[in-house]
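Issue 218. Parser rejects a valid record. Input:
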Amino acid sequence: MSGELFSSVFLLLLVLDPLGNMPFVLSLLRHMPEERRPRIILRECAIATFVLIGFLFVGDWLLFAMQLSDPALEIAGGLILFLIALRMTFPPPSHGMSEHETPNEPFIVPLAVPMIAGPSALATVLLASRHSNGQTVLWVGAVILACLVNALLLLASGWFARLFGKAGMEALERLMGLILTAIAVQMLIKGIRIAFNIG
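Output the parser choked on:
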């Protein structure tokens, strides 16, 4: 159980990508008073956590309503994760901080959704709800733990930026992207095997 919880939290952290989102957070909150920033981050992380847990509980119903099969969801989830991993490993030229500047305090959009509870994270919990096999409580715990670690890392974004510098942060994000690529490929292989009944 502890091994499954750890792997679930680790997968969610890769998908949430707190290291890659740190420049976004720093840019988004640069005009906010410094004493206000932690409260904004914690509020948005809490909203994202509730959104992800909500998808975890209604995900199976959504899949049934849309008549989606397990292989289709597995392959779609793998493709989404693969695209996210490519963005992390090879960030576009406009990935810098000035792209996201805004003088207004963010509320839900874009910090909670889609930065934290984005398409890849929602697809992951939807997939988890379909394959939970009575382990929904485990995944609820995994979502809470992953979002808690994500919040702590985002709260420390200023410290990380000073410690590693821009080049170090980019290197860490690309390393996470490489690991996520391997997970995405494994999901694609599993989905294809199920779809075509390959042993």
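Fixed in the parser; the record now loads. DSSP finds eight helices and no strands in the chain.
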